[in-house]
Amino acid sequence: MIANLVQLAAEEEQNPLVPPGPELLVGTIAFAIVFFFFWKKLLPNINKVLEERRAAIEGGIEEAEAMKVEAQSVLEQYKAQLAEARHEAARLRQEAQEQGAALIAEMRAEGQRQREEIVAAGHAQIEADRKAAASALRQDVGKLATELAGKLVGESLEDHARQSRVIDRFLDELEEKAEAAR
Amino acid sequence: MSADPTQLAFEWDCRILSDNGCGFPAPGLHSFLFKPIATVGGFEFNKVMLLALITTVLVVGFFWAAFGKAKVVPGKLQMIGEAGYDFVRRGIVYETLGKREGEKYVPLMVSLFFFIWIMNVWSVIPVAQFPVASIIAYPIVLAAVVYVTWVALTFKKHGFVGFFKNVTGYDKSLGAVLPLVMVIEFFSNLLVRPFTHAVRLFANMFAGHLMLVMFTVASWYLLNSWMIPAAGVSFIMTMVMILFELFVQAVQAYVFVLLACSYVQGALAEHH
């Protein structure tokens, strides 16, 4: 009850819109300290760091930009080189093909020539052999003719039948000779 | 009696439906009176002053921890601090004053915002449970700082005659109504505006505290026999009011700083 009375008495004095003096003082001091620290120390501190960070980020961006440009130029260079290499390779292939074709044609011509040579040589050999054979034969035929003539003379030539028999025999002998020669 | 009779100021044994004949111990102006904790040479030091000073310690302490050794790559605390700083700097100051003009006023506005906000938040912190700004002296100090800044700035920018043209909204094209407008503007800008600036913050916190105390006291007062469900409702309302107050505390800090910025902007504006 006494406490209530004290409160009532206090309430009569109090108007919530009239500031008590001590509170004004404490409020001023409290705020002044906050403001002082923010103003002199904390915000300059953080602003410096924020500025550094901004610079770092911008520096990083610039660096990245430069690297991108460089990479682009390197890529272009590389592409150009690649195209050149391709071109060169195509040219070489073409050249090789041409050379190969020429080589093949040359080889073919050479082969042809050699074949013709060989064939010609063959023909000459055959001709020589034939000639040799013919001359040998001619000698043999003369000898045989002489032999035959001797035989004919040796034998009687009265009848036709006998004649033919002799001739047949001669031919058979001839054949046998040829057989033996083979 | 409670441990702190001057804060809640009601009888613990006073309950609804009890027959000791006492009524609802409604909160009132006495809820905003505190017995001094200590008296030093006639200076009475009370709980609200203590809370105001703790606010200073907390705000400076937090930002010292966050920005004291600020790094380009921030730690967690610095990141939080930067977010708060950026909110005031970009969200309020740059928005109203622009980057070039506003930069000078950033320290003032940042200090105002965090000082007011933490002063308000005490409202819902257990044991403290009192918004410092609901004692008008504190909003008055802050409004006075803004007022002095504004007046000084207007003088500096426009000179003596320019100052009066600025605060009276002098505009020849108004013709015959000009004297009337000038009188109204003069009173509005020079006398009413600092008052409303302070009272807006004060009254919001004052009313918020009354509501919180009322529902808290009622939760206890109703806690008897068949009225217990009503006590439950009152308790839920207390919770709702705490959430709502958290919102209002931040909004009031924001509004106070926003208005301060708009006053400064008025001072800097070219006369036309």
Automatic annotation (TrEMBL), chain A:
InterPro entries: ATP_synth_B-like_membr_sf (IPR028987), ATP_synth_b/b'su_bac/chlpt (IPR002146), ATP_synth_F0_bsu_bac (IPR005864), ATP_synthase_B_chain (IPR050059). Keywords: ATP synthesis, Cell membrane, CF(0), Coiled coil, Hydrogen ion transport, Ion transport, Membrane, Transmembrane, Transmembrane helix, Transport. It comes from the Bacteria. Residues 47-102 form a coiled coil. It is found in: Cell membrane. The chain crosses the membrane at residues 24-43. It is a single-pass membrane protein. Belongs to the ATPase B chain family. PANTHER family: ATP SYNTHASE SUBUNIT B, ATP SYNTHASE SUBUNIT B', CHLOROPLASTIC. HAMAP family: ATP_synth_b_bprime. F-type ATPases have 2 components, F(1) - the catalytic core - and F(0) - the membrane proton channel. F(1) has five subunits: alpha(3), beta(3), gamma(1), delta(1), epsilon(1). F(0) has three main subunits: a(1), b(2) and c(10-14). The alpha and beta chains form an alternating ring which encloses part of the gamma chain. F(1) is attached to F(0) by a central stalk formed by the gamma and epsilon chains, while a peripheral stalk is formed by the delta and b chains. NCBIfam families: ATP_synt_b (TIGR01144), PRK05759.1-3 (NF004412). F(1)F(0) ATP synthase produces ATP from ADP in the presence of a proton or sodium gradient. F-type ATPases consist of two structural domains, F(1) containing the extramembraneous catalytic core and F(0) containing the membrane proton channel, linked together by a central stalk and a peripheral stalk. During catalysis, ATP synthesis in the catalytic domain of F(1) is coupled via a rotary mechanism of the central stalk subunits to proton translocation. Component of the F(0) channel, it forms part of the peripheral stalk, linking F(1) to F(0). This is ATP synthase subunit b. It comes from Streptomyces thermocoprophilus. The gene is atpF.
